[in-house]
Specification:
Elements: E1 3-8, E2 16-20, E3 30-35, E4 38-49, H1 55-60, E5 62-63, E6 66-67, H2 70-96, E7 102-108, E8 114-120, H3 128-138, E9 141-146, H4 149-155, H5 167-170, H6 180-185, H7 192-195, H8 210-218, E10 226-229, E11 235-242, E12 247-252, E13 260-265, E14 269-270
């Protein structure tokens, strides 16, 4: 049975799938494959088999060319040196042309037939003159690709608030929407400085437990709702929720003199269930 490899090319590309028809390849092995930019070296991050894909999906998956060789690695080193020089040249020209863009990375394909420059900008940039200068200098296909703030973080090592390297640089291959609503549903205080990642946007990890929180919230009353303790039939108002533990803090009494607070498991109280 053929292997299907999930391959990541550099740090700012999404996960791509390729077939492996020959030698045994494992996670973290490097391979050479044809991409929309040309020949590139990528790292294997997943190894699957054909049964994991539908027939029409398998038909669209290309084959890898080969496992990376010593010659390929030497070529990569030389390309990286050339790319660094190109990066400095491009940065200088951006300054001369007074373009509103921040250059992030320059990268050659393995066969050095294409040179791509990645940049971030808060506005549309007319870089036609810059492309002419670069094409004249390097005599290869030139592409200037605008990327977002999240992609920018992938390029260089960054630590998240958890103290570990950011997810987008380690295992996260595609960005999914993250909203303030997710933070609210998880009972988090809406403090953007604490909820934002290295890219300045909401942390991707807010998605990881979102489904669990959603399911648990369906089993819990809302804050402010009146509930009844099953054993005593005493009625009180919900003041706080422990969403993961499915516990509810209930206030009893109507005045400061007789008020008290108790914590109950959700099964110990009755209330109008959410739809």
């Amino acid at each position: 049975m053929k292997q299907i490899l999930g391959i990541r090319f550099k740090n700012i590309n999404t996960l791509c799938y390729y077939k492996n028809n020959d030698e045994k390849i494992e996670v973290n092995d490097q391979v050479v494959a044809e991409t929309d930019k040309g020949l590139e070296v990528g790292r294997v991050v997943k190894v699957l088999n054909e049964d994991d894909f539908k027939k029409e999906e398998k038909e669209k998956i290309k084959d890898i060319l080969r496992k990376v060789t010593k010659e390929d690695l030497n070529t990569l080193k030389e390309n990286d040196k050339m790319a660094k020089e190109a990066f400095l040249f491009c940065k200088e020209k951006i300054k001369e042309l007074n373009l509103s863009m921040k250059l992030i990375l320059a990268e050659y394909t393995l066969d050095a037939t294409k040179l791509t420059f990645y940049f971030v900008s808060e506005e549309r940039v007319d870089f036609r003159e810059l492309v002419k200068l670069l094409a004249s200098k390097y005599k290869v296909r030139i592409e200037l690709r605008q990327i977002g703030q999240r992609d920018e973080v992938r390029v260089y090592p960054n630590l998240g608030m958890c103290g570990r390297e950011v997810c987008c640089r380690t295992f996260l291959h595609e960005f999914e929407p993250v909203t303030i609503k997710m933070a609210k549903e998880q009972g988090l205080q809406i403090n953007m400085s604490k909820l934002s990642g290295a890219c300045g946007k909401l942390m991707c990890c807010l998605r990881y437990e979102e489904e669990a929180y959603k399911e648990n919230l369906k089993k819990l009353p809302k804050v402010g709702e009146m509930v009844t303790v099953k054993d005593t039939e005493e009625e009180g108002k919900v003041t706080a929720l422990d969403i993961l533990k499915l516990k509810v803090k209930v206030k009893f009494g109507t005045s400061r003199e007789d008020e008290r607070f108790e914590v109950y498991d959700v099964n110990e109280i009755s209330f109008k269930e959410r739809k």
